[in-house]
Specification:
rod-shaped
Amino acid sequence: MALGTDELAEAFGELARVVAEEVAPVLEASGCTARLLDRLAAATAPEPSAREVG
């Protein structure tokens, strides 16, 4: 159906476009993973001991 050239295939293609672009578009998330990993590293980092602090 999606690869056809008839009316049904065109309707399906338009439906897919509307969903992908208007209903649930892909969001820019380039920094999300980096922020998540930074927070994870900070949360799991060992706390400095009293000797290290001073």
